[in-house]
Amino acid sequence: MPTKDETYGVPPQWTDTPTRTRKAYNAEDVNDVMTNLFDRVDDLRIAGNQDYAHSDETPFRNFEAMAEDANIKVGQAWLVLTRKHWDGIVAYIRGRSSMREHVLGRIADLILYLVLLAARIMQDEGRDPKEVWWNPEAEAQRLEP
């Protein structure tokens, strides 16, 4: 079991002397991280709909309410609410060891906020939510060796 310092301490990849020996991740390990992270992001989305939006019908309610209360645009409200998560990530990278929430939680929150921003942009542009907005054929060609 890692100690608090090992779990929340200075990130070794940004220091001159790592605090412990770590396994180097391969592509499969990163895929596992991505799968688990996106599962967590989806859990946060579901919980957030209840906590902030109060329903599945108004996923942007928290941003819209803040925008109205502060007399700002919805995108500006998104930026204010997102900044907290970004600041936590920056603090971790800079070596801050005492944080209320582990940096991985902040990363999951930030990913969710980015997904919400993408969804709001697509809504505002009148796009179908199932639309593939990138060109999959061009992407496949770009990725070919």
Short description:
63% of the residues lie in helices and 0% in strands. By secondary structure, it is an all-alpha fold.
Note down, in words, how this protein is organized.
The protein is mainly alpha-helical. Helix content is 63%, strand content 0%. It contains six helices and no strands. The longest helix has 27 residues, at 27-53. The chain is globular and about 50 Å long.
Descriptors for this entry?
disordered N terminus; 145 residues; mainly alpha
> Helical segment tally?
6
Order of helices and strands: HHHHHH
What can be said about the biggest beta sheet?
Answer: none
Rg from alpha-carbon coordinates: 19 Å
Give the total of beta strands: 0
- Helix/sheet category: mainly alpha
Broad shape: globular
The helix content, as a percent range, equals: 55-70%
Beginning-to-end CA distance, first to last residue: 41 Å
* Uncertain runs: 1-8
The average pLDDT score comes to 83
Number of domains: 1
Percent range for β-strand residues: under 5%
Note the topology.
Layout: H1 4-8, H2 27-53, H3 61-70, H4 74-93, H5 103-124, H6 136-143
Helix pairs in contact: 2-5, 3-4, 4-5
